[in-house]
Amino acid sequence: MVLVDTSIWIEYLDRLNPLVEREMDVLLRAGVVAIAGLVLAELRQGCRTNNQAKALLARLQSLPYLEVDRDNWLAAGQMVADCRGRGHRLEIADCLLAALVLRENCLIFTLDQDFKRIPGLQLYAIR
User: Fold this and answer.
1) Is 123 inside any structural domain?
2) Distance of alpha carbon 97 from alpha carbon 61, whole angstroms
3) What do you get for the CA distance between the two ends of the chain, in Å?
4) Is 127 a member of any domain?
5) CB 122: neighbour CB atoms within 10 A?
6) The domain containing residue 77 runs over which residues?
7) Is 87 left (phi over 0), alpha (psi -120 to 50) or beta?
8) DSSP-derived secondary structure letter, 124
9) What tens digit of pLDDT does each residue of 29-84 get?
10) CB within 8 Å of 104: residues ≥ 6 apart
């Protein structure tokens, strides 16, 4: 399973990057794309109209949904603290997605380089 981050969805939906578009088509056809609430919320906030939002959310409805729990929130807070201790700054939102990926033992597909700072996280790479 591959959790797709908002940065990839934007590139894919806006057709900004042919490499991302091709790779997402492959992943979607294979049925291995998952989504999380944070990603849904970020994508929803970018919709200009309610009709656009309805169409987008209908498209994403069939994807496996990864739900955050209490342990994920605590793990995300620990990741932020650990990175701060190493002199890096990470956003809690990124760490929350990372906690989900680690819990589910899956990959994350993202353009956000901050995810590389999280130990043990497996990044999905365009082939």
Assistant:
1) no
2) 19
3) 16
4) no
5) 13
6) 2-117
7) left
8) P
9) 999 999 999 999 999 999 999 999 999 999 999 999 999 999 999 999 999 999 89
10) 1, 3, 34, 66
